[in-house]
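User: We ran a pulldown and think these components assemble together. Before we commit to crystallization trials, I'd like a predicted model of the whole complex to look at. Sequences follow.
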Amino acid sequence: MKKCEFERLCSLLRIEVPFEEYSSFSNYVSELSKNADSLSLIQSFHISKNKPLLFSSLREDEVFSSVDKESVLSSSKSSNGAFFRLKEGGNKP
Amino acid sequence: MSKIELIKKAIQTKKVSEKEVFNYYLENALKTKNLNAFISMCDNFSESDEGILKGIPFAIKDNLSTKAIKTTCASAILKDYTPFFDAFCVSALKKEGGIIIGKTNMDEFGMGSRGENSFFGPVKNPLDQARCSGGSSSGSAVSVSSDSSVFALGSDTGGSVRLPASYCSCVGFVPTYSSVSRYGLIAYASSLDRVGILSASVRDSAIVYNIISRYDPKDMTLNKTSNSVSLSSLENNSGEIKVAFLESSLSLCDEDVIKNTKNALNLLSSFGVKIVPININFMKEALFAYSIIAYTEAVSNLLRYDGLRYGKNSAEPSFIDTYYINERSLSFGKEVKKRLLFGTQILSGGNYEKYLSYAINVKNHLEKELEKAFAEADIIICPTASSVAPLLQSEKNDKEDIFTCFSSLTGNPSISVPTNPSDSLPTALQIIGKKNDEQSVFKVASLLEKILGECEKEENKWILNL
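Assistant: Here's a predicted model for the assembly, 559 residues in total across the polymer chains.
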């Protein structure tokens, strides 16, 4: 990894660290990159773009089974919250 | 044998008082202060509520929120943070009469596998102080192993409960992802974080699990149906359980681990457990996939720490941006910064698709691999760690968490049970179950513990500090 790229990451993260201290980090990134490139299995699974990637361990029914939709909707009516607006059909003010 | 039940019985029959039990553990914690297991102690005793854990002192990893007790995540940026609420699991244990004895040291924000990355200094292994205690729930494992608490809560993202349990010779259990509420657990990688338990015996873990796995509406990812474990069936050895042993794991292990693993398998087999060899592919890739998912999630979870509300407050508040940069640079440790940099690199344009696709594919493949294995057996067994506890400050070995990472990615329940004879450093076996089948995990773990306990009696050679 080039120093300028490293500095860009630091500024995104709002931290300041010396480039020299993080040589092992650069090695790890390139090792991973090689691994990801060489692995042909990338093509073998279809990833739906509609699914949130980071929470893909949960099935949709697992996520929503814990939420009593009706009670959320009714409790949101009084506070005029997002669920209320959704139920009424749209995100109008 | 359950320590919780023994102590409870002693209190009920008035052989000891709650206060005497509390003082015993507090004194032990103070005697072993040099191990650095605790960040803060709760030394004011007060009578506890009636319940399953009445009078039982327990410790809590310092990333679980505790009302009016500092919760630092072992980071300088949270060193003065005192929550105004309890994490769900903490409040559940308190309601059942448990008494908090202290908050335990850990790797900063759970980032580490050795207990060396804490703002408050490294945690030493009670069995050999030149060695690390494992991480990131290092202080919790040490508190149980050094008899400074009856049990302790930890958290596990890639093996943070099971590794320290293996290195410190105690039981470490993580439930199925989404079966214990994460409300009040300070997030590192939300899709992998799980609350876990460290204890002296399998039965103790099962007792605590039944309490903390109750339904909590505040965690919307939680299963509505409870997977509570039947304690009476743990002692019942009837019913055939088929065990799959991860054969390829041995080629990655040190000599001590191989010897103790083979011995434990032989004992299980001699008790009529059917063991079939299996192999799971993509174990090495799981380490990379774990890093990608955990570090990218950490970037967003740790962005909130800007140093304004908590932290060192050492910088002059001239410009807000300079203030943020100074605070975050001074307050985060080296490992945290490394992981945040890595996560940001992955989230940068162009990399996101490549790396995240890779990680999700590896995860999907692992799910398939486990599915195949569970078609043949009820339980998968492999060593918890590939070696005994490494020396403090020694170079990190890539294989250290190879056996814990893959089941962290898939979210299966697993438990680490000690397998070592008394004259050597601890090693452990990991028992992995199907999702939501905690019962089988505890049952096999309980059987293994019992068999090794029998050996202790027969040969006067084995130790299981139960």
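The radius of gyration of chain A is 22 Å. That may be worth checking against your pulldown data before setting up trials.

User: Thanks, that helps.
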